[in-house]
Amino acid sequence: MKPRKRAATDAPYNDLDLSRWKEYGDVWTDSLWHIPSRARGNGHALEYHGNFVPQIATQTFTRYTRRDEVILDLFLGSGTSAVEAARLGRRCIGVELRPELVEHLRTKLGPDDARRQLICGDSSATGTGDAVRAALGRWDRAKADLLVLHPPYADIIRFSDRPECLSNAGSTPMFLDLFRRVVALGWELLEDGRFAVLVIADKYEGGALVPLGFECMRVMNEAGFRTKSIVVKNIEGNEVGKGRANNLWRYRALRGGFYVFKHEYVMIFDKPRRSQSNDRR
Ligand SMILES: C[S@@+](CC[C@H](N)C(=O)[O-])C[C@H]1O[C@@H](n2cnc3c(N)ncnc32)[C@H](O)[C@@H]1O
User: Fold this and answer.
1) pLDDT 10s digit of each residue in the chain, 281 long?
2) Cβ neighbours around 153 below 10 Å, total
3) In principle, which of 45, 88, 94, 251 could form an S-S bond with 76, CB 3.0–4.6 Å?
4) Contact 230, 197 (CB under 8 A)
5) Got the DSSP string for 61-96?
6) CA geometry: angle at 87 spanning 33 and 51, to 5°?
7) Residue nearest to ligand 1 atom 8, measured at CA
8) Which ligand 1 atom is nearest residue 166's CA?
């Protein structure tokens, strides 16, 4: 199909035809997402405890990228971003720490190709930047068009025993320190004027709430990212078989005076162009 000629009123960072904006009922613009069940099929499966529902990728890739553009996911996990990027005609570079997971993905999805490059590495290490830059270079690109960050929610799920894994950070300040390094890398590798998506939740520790989501937002802001939106999303669909545990949590909540988490955040940021950042000072 011949690409449509873009109108001056269209956003420069997506393919939505704003002269038909009323027809885009499937593109969400509200800040509360209740997703009744995870999208299945199209290569997606709930095979990894802690992966995000594909709808997060569908919505944000549609809003913040154009066809063939490059999405960089620095916590690729089971590859939801890579699968959805290919389905939507985008390209994806994904970094994941666990070699066995990257191998599994290569077996499942096939070798790297024109739509996907997987890197096994530590996103908090500066050397990983060189690997991502080499991957971008293979596509004649210097930077990515969208940054996706879905870190472990501190120690809520232990993803591996590796010391570089953010789920093994040891304390919230140490987790935020590692996260800060990943954000610095993401900032460097993202085009100016483009968007970043952070999927994160809060946690409880020692009987009190740790506002991990807002702490991570602060780290993003300190790196220079500007918060555009905070979406609150229900978490059903992320978890494998929590039936009995759910009841236990309800008991603990009644006893401990707190509420059981049923939400997480999808936070949207942009990386202001240099002239925009100067405007803000
Ligand atoms: C919440 S999961 C991401 C899930 C992913 N969005 C999906 O849909 O499958 C976080 C992932 O980050 C990985 N990880 C943790 N620390 C990392 C690091 N320093 N560098 C790269 N990946 C890391 C973990 O192994 C885990 O697979």
Assistant:
1) 566 678 888 899 999 999 999 999 999 999 999 998 888 877 777 677 888 999 999 999 999 999 999 999 999 999 999 999 999 999 999 999 999 999 999 999 999 999 999 999 999 998 999 999 999 999 999 999 999 999 999 999 999 999 999 999 999 999 999 999 999 999 999 999 999 999 999 999 999 999 999 999 999 999 999 999 999 999 975 555 556 667 888 999 999 999 999 999 999 999 999 876 555 44
2) 22
3) 94
4) no
5) HHHH--TT-EEEESS-TTTHHHHHHHHTT-EEEEEE
6) 50
7) 51
8) 16
Strands (E), the chain: 32-33, 70-73, 91-96, 116-120, 144-149, 190-200, 203-205, 208-210, 226-234, 263-270
pTM of the model: 0.94
Give CB contacts under 8 A, 24+ apart, made by 123-130: 123/74, 123/75, 123/95, 123/97, 123/181, 123/182, 123/185, 124/164, 124/166, 124/178, 124/179, 124/181, 124/182, 124/185, 125/164, 125/181, 126/185, 128/95, 128/185, 129/185, 129/188, 129/189
Of 147, 156, 152, which is closest to residue 164 (Cα–Cα)? 152
What is the residue with the minimal CA distance to atom 27 of ligand 1? 77
58, 95, 96, 148: which to mutate for ligand 1, most atoms within 8 A of CB? 96
What are residue 267's DSSP bridge partners?
198, 230
